[in-house]
UniProtKB/TrEMBL annotation:
Basic and acidic residues bias locations: 96-115, 145-171
Protein name as annotated: tRNA (adenine(58)-N(1))-methyltransferase non-catalytic subunit TRM6
Top-level division of the source organism's lineage: Eukaryota
InterPro entries: TRM6
Amino acid sequence: MRYDTLAQMLTLGNIRAGNKMIVMETCSGLVLGAMMERMGGFGSIIQLYPGDGPVRAATACFGFPKSFLSGLHEFPLNKINSLLNGTFSAEMLSSEPKDSTPVEQSNGEHEEKQISEQADEDSIAEAAESNLEEQRTMETVPQDPENKEPKEKGNRRDYIQEKQRRQEEQRKRHLEAAALLGERNADGLIVASRFHPTPLLLSLLDFVAPSRPFVVYCQYKEPLLECYTKLRERGGVINLRLSETWLRNYQVLPDRSHPKLLMSGGGGYLLSGITVVSDSLRADPSLKSCASTLDSHAAEEPAAKKQKCVGSGS
């Protein structure tokens, strides 16, 4: 991602202090760090991540103080559908295994793991048989007076307790992020990931309040064209614009200022727009009743009085 593209995303997304933003990015935390720097520690950011946990390698290079991290929340991407359907609960976070590999990876790697484990067992058995003869010839060495087993058990117990504590903290953060997403009043959405943007954007737009901007970055134009078409069919958005960032360096010298012949290509494409109230919300009976009351109030207003024009006598 080029720096001018990142600047365009921050500008089109209206990133400012006090906002409540949603970001889905797979750029090692570069977009997240830029948003945190622009917001200055005020407001809240909900980061959606795929896999086991968020990747924030680039965010750590910014050197933010701890006050900036207080408004940073995280939520797994695979729980978005349950949150939209209203079936999300705290038991879903506590019941899922933390150390288990994803299903996509385990399907292809299960047999290889079994074969590698069998090979390891065979090598261990051979090594044990070869060491039997050496152990018989070796002299017996007196044991250490300090018992090492209780220490190993104590270290393992501390490790398990620390792991449980981290899992509980992560579960609390997920619940806080779910509560913020459940309000569905986010001030903006930024998507910059390696996944196809259409299903991501169509599902995440439900968490954004009306009259709020959204920006989608993709290295190629074709996925954004499909996303553009789906959004036009879906409705609920205006001011859709698909743009390509263009960058050219200039040489600035006395009497010799001119654009350089070589320029950077492949800066990526941006799809931006503004959310509005969709037709499904307009068809809500509660909204219809509000509109009828407004019309009745408008009908009850008295008409403007007509002023008589007094003609000047000739």
